[in-house]
């Protein structure tokens, strides 16, 4: 009887130790997983921030070119240019030389800017 009881106690102690070892190992694996996930999440955020920064660098010149052209058109509203007016750095004609500058041309500039920005964001 006593021998059986001692064996039962010894088995219980061994089971408890094994359970503790298993739980410790599980915690270590989970901690390592959480650390890896955290590192990956941080890397993803860095990549997104870099992408956003690169897009902003490309968008800014387009926006500024559109603003300058829009201002020039407003200043020359009602007049007819001697030559076609193109959106800067493109072959897109905003105002033909035969036309009189009007609000529709300013709207056209805004649409061109919008289209170019969308194209850049799509990549």
| Number of DSSP E strands | 2
Contiguous runs where pLDDT drops below 50 for at least 5 residues: none
Q: Which descriptor suits the 3D outline?
A: rod-shaped
**Strand line-up of the largest beta sheet:** 1-2
Topology as H/E string? HEEH
Radius of gyration: 35 Å
- Overall pLDDT, averaged? 95
Which structural class do you get from the secondary structure elements?
Answer: mainly alpha
Percent of sequence in beta strands: under 5%
Describe this structure in words.
The chain is mainly alpha-helical and 123 residues long. The chain has one domain (2-122). The chain is 76% helix and 4% strand. It is built from two helices and two strands, in the order αββα. It has helices at 2-75, 103-122, and strands at 85-86, 93-95. The chain has a two-stranded antiparallel sheet. β1 (85-86) and β2 form a beta hairpin. α1 runs antiparallel to α2 (103-122). The chain is rod-shaped. The mean pLDDT is 95.
Give a concise summary.
The chain has 123 residues and is mainly alpha-helical. Helices cover 76% and strands 4% of the residues.
SSE topology:
Layout: H1 2-75, E1 85-86, E2 93-95, H2 103-122
Notable features of this structure?
76% helix; two-stranded antiparallel ribbon
